[in-house]
Amino acid sequence: MKFNCNIRHFVFASALLFIMILVSGCATNRGILDVQINEAPNPASTKIITISEVNDIRVFEKAPRQASIPSLKGGEIDNKEITLRAIARKRNGYGKALGDILLPEGNTVEQLVKDALVKSFRESGYYVIDDKSETDKQKNAVPVKADIEQFWAWVTPGFWTISLEFEAKVKIKGDIPSFENGDTVRGYVKLHTQAAGTKAWMNTMDKGLESFVSEVKKRLSN
C-alpha cells in the first residue's frame, strides 16, 4: 500500500513539474506577438461610416486578484507606451504572474481593435472610410467611436493541460442601428493546450478576435 502511495505521489509530482516547465519556459521574459487582422474589402454600399475614435480605457493593476485583470511585469502600469501594446500575462505552474506579452513596437491595441471593427462593418455591408483622401464620401460618413474596456489574454494552469483565455469588451457608439445609445460587445474564447508557447498564444488571440468580429456582425445584422 505504501509503495503504491509513493508511486502516486511520484507521478503527481512529475506531472506537476512537467506542467510547470511547459508553462514557465521563457515565461519570465517579455514576449512579443505580432497579432494582425486580415483586411476585408469595402462593399459597394450607400451605408458609409468611419471609425473616428478608438480609446484604450483598460485599467491595469500591479497585483491583480484575478489573471483576467491586465497587469505588467515590473509594475509598468503607468507607462502608456507599454500599456497600449500589452495583451497578455504569463504565469507559472502555481499561477504566479511572470512575464508579459506585448504587440510589436508601432502597433497598439487601439489599432488592432480598429482593424477588427473595420473588418466587422465591411463584412456586414458597410463602406468604411479608412483613407483621408476619400473626401467625397467623408461628408456622408457616420462617425463611430469605440472604448476598449477589456482586451486581455491569460493562462490558467491545470493538471494535464493548461487553458489560455482571451476576452475583449468594446463599447461601440454611432448613429447606426444597434449602437445608437452605445453598447458593449464581448468576444471570448478558452482553449486547452499542452504548452503556452508562441503558437498557442497566437491561436488564442486569433480565435478570440474572430469571436469579437463575429459578435459585432451579429449586432449589425439585427
Automatic annotation (TrEMBL):
Keywords: Cell projection, Cilium, Flagellum. This is Putative Flagellar biosynthetic protein. It comes from Desulfamplus magnetovallimortis.
